[in-house]
Write a structure and sequence with these properties.
The chain has about 230 residues and is α/β, with parallel strands linked by helices. It has eight helices and six strands, in the order E-H-H-E-H-H-E-H-E-H-H-E-E-H. The chain has a six-stranded parallel sheet with strand order 3-4-2-1-5-6, with helices on both faces. Bound molecules: 3-methylbut-3-enyl trihydrogen diphosphate (IPE) (2 copies) and magnesium ion (MG).
Amino acid sequence: MTENNLQHIAIIMDGNGRWAAKRGLPRNAGHQKGAEVIIETAKAVKELGVKYLTVYAFSTENWKRSKQEVDGLMNLLRQYLDKNFEELEKNDVRIRFIGERNMLAADIVAKMENLERRTISNQSLVLQIALSYGSRQEIINAVKEAAQKVKEGELTVEGIDEKNFSQMLYTADVPDPDLLIRTSGEQRLSNYLLWQLAYTELFFTDTLWPDFSKEELKSIIENYKTRERRYGKA
Ligand code: IPE
Ligand code: IPE
Ligand code: MG
């Protein structure tokens, strides 16, 4: 039996709030530590030779959290866009964002676009950050785009297929994830990559995201390699 190929890992980074609560700290302290772990994980994924990493940083549902938490998260994001992503940029990582940009503040969107432009030629790893992301909304947007194309005569109804529909999602041109990891013990998808995860191998760990390590990542990958995959193999 040959080992499974692994070119794309998706992660639902959950448990920041519980990590902070266990230490008597505010929730945003958990997000701060969690953000540091994103950088370390991206470097580890790159070193392990995996080409794509997609992390869930903020869902469309997360807008409903307290103003204090949302403001804290947005300021943390500003700090990363201004400075902390530099290390990945220098490490040949391409960064792109997926999600509803129109819900984000204009200065944040400008910084995101700037970072995407600056890293567009980086090749070692593509880091996709799902921000203000919701999978159902992504699919609805793609349906609207397909309908528009039909209306304009660029596409026929019969001509809509999995291949061209995939190209209308935020993740166009990116292969589907081979492995999904969710931390913190919750076993649900929380509106993440519903289309793209159709045949992905799922892995749930009780570790809270701020405690996630390269060692654990390696052991999850070892487990993944032994699994019997059905479809979706690269
Ligand atoms: C995940 O951690 C990070 C975000 C959703 C922004 P949580 O903030 O959901 O942490 P828990 O689940 O409350 O512990
Ligand atoms: C999912 O985690 C979103 C992110 C990790 C950014 P949540 O903590 O928001 O998900 P639920 O509310 O437990 O489903
Ligand atoms: Mg959570």
